[in-house]
């Protein structure tokens, strides 16, 4: 049931009541033209739903994920493995490695979980994203929110599937020579949130993202000028200009590991720094082992197109 708003914007619905939109749809395929017109009409009239974070499930499925699916299926040829380890319902924290110069890995994981596991992924993003007005608005519309304790706790306690990349910019911006070597996982705030909510942690390994933009250097003074963590140099950027921004078609594998339970701890254990540190280190070790095995399983990063 939606809650009317007095500011003329779309009504707010509880997260648990937000609709889920499947890529398959099921049953007879609807007329695409009629479906598009109906979607546009709802956008104009405001007859659509968002949750308290601003998440618009229909917009995410019909626009963002629809744009990403060709990349997922045909460019990166992503294979999602061990989806059985993703809980079918209830809160869970998906913790993954972060890489690739640009955070495309987060978006590919969002497609995998939405389309193949039937779960909307609520990604926690760096504060840089939310300092940029347009990007901040789009991020919240598509289910993302600030990586902070308050938002993480609220989402997990409401039964959402939450995604986090503890390496942050240290991971996504590391040089190609350090590919698939996990960076430090920060202070373990994600583990504390999982303990407080009593939800499982799903360690996740992503192989393929490291090769899309091989970072061989950076331009620090330009990064400082633009207020960015780094401005990369790759074999094709800035040499080829905008064409250098096209990601290389590496082969991707995303594996979801066996969940690590936290409900055996008292919620107050989240305030025990040693426990949080040890569990954080355990999650990191599991993901590193998964990455090493998954790289061997994938083989060459650029197999011939079939």
Please give a quick description of this structure:
The radius of gyration is 20 Å and the shape is globular.
What would your notes on this structure say?
This protein is 36% helix and 11% strand. By secondary structure, it is of the alpha/beta class. The chain has two domains: 55-212 and 247-298, Glycerol-3-phosphate (1)-acyltransferase (3-Layer(aba) Sandwich); 214-242, no CATH class. The strands form two sheets. It has a seven-stranded mixed β-sheet, with helices on both faces. The protein has a two-stranded antiparallel sheet with strand order 7-8. Residues 1-7 and 12-26 have low confidence and may be disordered.
List the helices and strands and how they pair.
Layout (H helix, E strand, L loop, with lengths): L31 H14 L11 H19 L3 E3 L10 E5 L7 H13 L4 E5 L7 H9 L3 E2 L2 H9 L3 E4 L4 H4 L16 H9 L3 E7 L9 E2 L1 H7 L5 E2 L19 E4 L16 H26 L8
Parallel strand pairs: 1-9, 2-5, 2-6, 3-4, 3-5
Antiparallel strand pairs: 6-9, 7-8
Question: Keyphrases for this structure?
Answer:
36% helix, 9 helices, Glycerol-3-phosphate (1)-acyltransferase, alpha/beta, 2 domains
């Amino acid at each position: 049931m939606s809650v009317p708003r007095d500011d003329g914007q779309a009504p707010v619905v509880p997260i648990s009541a937000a609709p889920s939109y499947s890529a398959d749809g099921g049953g007879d395929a609807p007329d695409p033209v009629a479906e598009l017109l109906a979607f546009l009409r709802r956008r104009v009239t405001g007859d659509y739903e968002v949750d308290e974070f601003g998440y618009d499930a229909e917009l995410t499925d019909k626009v963002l994920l629809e744009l990403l699916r060709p990349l997922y299926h045909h460019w990166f040829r992503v294979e999602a493995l061990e989806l059985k380890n993703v809980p079918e319902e209830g809160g869970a924290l998906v913790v993954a490695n972060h890489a690739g110069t640009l955070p495309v890995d987060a978006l590919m994981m969002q497609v995998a979980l939405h389309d193949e596991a039937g779960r909307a992924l609520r990604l926690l993003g760096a504060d840089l994203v939310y300092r940029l007005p347009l990007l901040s608005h789009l991020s919240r519309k598509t289910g993302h929110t600030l990586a902070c304790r308050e938002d993480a706790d609220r989402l997990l306690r409401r039964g959402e599937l939450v995604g986090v990349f503890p390496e942050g910019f240290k991971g996504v911006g590391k040089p190609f020579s350090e590919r698939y070597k996990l960076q430090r996982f920060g202070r373990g705030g994600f583990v504390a949130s999982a303990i407080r909510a009593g939800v499982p942690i799903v360690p996740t390994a992503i192989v393929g993202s490291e090769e899309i933009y091989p970072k061989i250097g950076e331009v620090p003074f330009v990064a400082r000028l633009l207020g960015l963590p780094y401005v990369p140099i790759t074999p094709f950027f800035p040499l080829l200009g905008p064409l250098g921004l096209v990601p290389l078609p590496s082969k991707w594998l995303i594996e979801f590991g066996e969940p690590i339970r936290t409900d055996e701890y008292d919620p107050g254990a989240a305030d025990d720094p040693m426990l949080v540190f040890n569990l954080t280190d355990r999650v990191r070790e599991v993901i590193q082992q998964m990455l090493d095995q998954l790289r061997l399983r994938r083989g060459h990063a650029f197999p011939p197109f079939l």
